[in-house]
Please model this.
Amino acid sequence: QVQLVESGGGLAQPGGPLRLSCVASGFTFGNYAKTWFRQVPGKGPEWVTGISSDVRVTYDTGAAKGRFTISGDNAKNTVYLETNSLKTGNTGMYYCAKHATNTKASGMDYWGGGTLVTISS
Model:
């Protein structure tokens, strides 16, 4: 049974740091690309960043590039999302997801229950 469990959310301050973790089980973690995406009420999911199956290559959007860092540890079946420059617009539910194959081009087929991040001073 595929499971992804996010943690590390909570209340954070603008300009402050954030580190989210996602622990996966039920599949061979190193065989699949992984992604973090964010969703706020009333809007569709927003892709934040992704990482290759071997956790050596990251896929950054223009919005996330330079601000959010994804990393992974295949030995621990864990992927991380970090930033040191939070903005109030980063508030939302953060999800990690597994892609259907080892490439980002494949769709996401499983994701966790999310962890809520609220940015407020």
Q: What stands out?
A: The chain has a mean pLDDT of 93. The two ends are 40 Å apart (CA to CA). The CA atoms of residues 93 and 116 lie 4 Å apart. The chain has no helices and eleven strands.
